[in-house]
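dumping this here before i forget
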Amino acid sequence: MNGRHICATALLAATALLNPITAGAQDHQAAVWNTHELDFQYMGFTSRFSCGGLQDQIQGILLKLGARDDRDIVSPGACSGVGDRPSRIAGVHIKAATLQPAANDSATTAVDAYWKPVIVGGGGSDMDCELLQQVKTDILPLFTTRNVKGPNIECVPHQATRIPAKLTLEVLTLAAPAQ
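structure:
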């Protein structure tokens, strides 16, 4: 192989990587909304949440992961705290619509979706490691995801960490309507 051929091949490869239209086109697919319900119970040893605080955290996570922005997707659940005081045990009821790949027979209700990279937690976030682990095991299965990595640290009960907990993944999300 001569030097010119290697340079041309490298240039073509770089162009393909930098071209967002080509790179993202294969990731679009038809999807349908499915509604899921879950009673999510947080039990933390290191961090505590009020019921309202947990409700806000979970609603933010659900919307970041691409749940449909319906009214009241998260409502109060079982809580051991008095009033809105932080407690080791707090719960919420989740009723959220998420995207699932469309079957061939659901073409009339299908929407255009794509794989969106998402980071939950991480630098500048007050995301709790224990909460992030529970989100990964209990809430992520409601979504169509791939390439899930994290939390990036080991959560140790009763020990705060200086490294922000982070969960990275790709989630099937509603594509923006064509302009």
